[in-house]
Amino acid sequence: MIKVEKIATKPPKKAIKSDYKKPMKKLLEKLSDLQYLMQAQGKHSLLIVLQGMDASGKDGITKKVFGACSPSGINVYSFKKPTDEEFAHDFLWRVHKQAPQKGMVKVFNRSHYEDVLIQRVHGWITEEHAEKRIGAINAFEDLLAFDNDTIVLKFFLHVSKEQQEIELQQRIDEHDKHWKHNDGDWEERKHWDKYMRCYNEVLNNCTTPWNIIPMDERWYGQYLIAEKVVETLEGLNMEFPALEK
Length: 245
Description:
Blueprint: H1 21-41, E1 45-52, H2 58-64, E2 74-78, H3 84-87, H4 93-96, E3 105-109, H5 118-121, H6 127-148, E4 150-158, H7 161-173, H8 183-189, H9 192-204, E5 210-214, H10 218-234
Parallel strand pairs: 1-3, 1-4, 2-3, 4-5
Helix pairs in contact: 1-10
């Protein structure tokens, strides 16, 4: 059974940032080539789910890892508070519309899991309701996989409470990060223990497995994600389509 509080948020002591610079460059070159190949083949799609506490590094991953992909073959969507129209539908209605079409990479910055995390932490839905939503999410992700050849890669960005405070404070102290500051992030931080409990429930009850990524050192987490994505796409054994006569 997964317990996030017992999983490291830092890289191994032997891991040195400079040693990962060249391997990371090679991974990003491979990622670019594989994404181009997937777009050309048009058989599969890739959904990347980035989920984590505030200031866990979602934006950095989007820029540093998926910035290697061609803009024509990738799209990023950030889930925020639902609109009135979205509230009037089932919770997955707005999510399904954002699922990637064949040949495309889609990155979810936050995701459908918000509806079983923040909703649960604040008691806006019951425990029974949350469990049913997790079941619906499992069915939704299974549907994407078997009906549209969508590979769903989910990454829980595991940051320590101490490092989150540092990151949030930087948004106040550093001019170029002011735009990221939100008082609400500090309020949500007060519910840290509840969030960890809810994350444990999610990580242990999903049929599509999660990749737990240590994010106290951003470069290491970005490397692990790039490595996993490349490994997954290589496993598809994709080929360029033959010339049509």
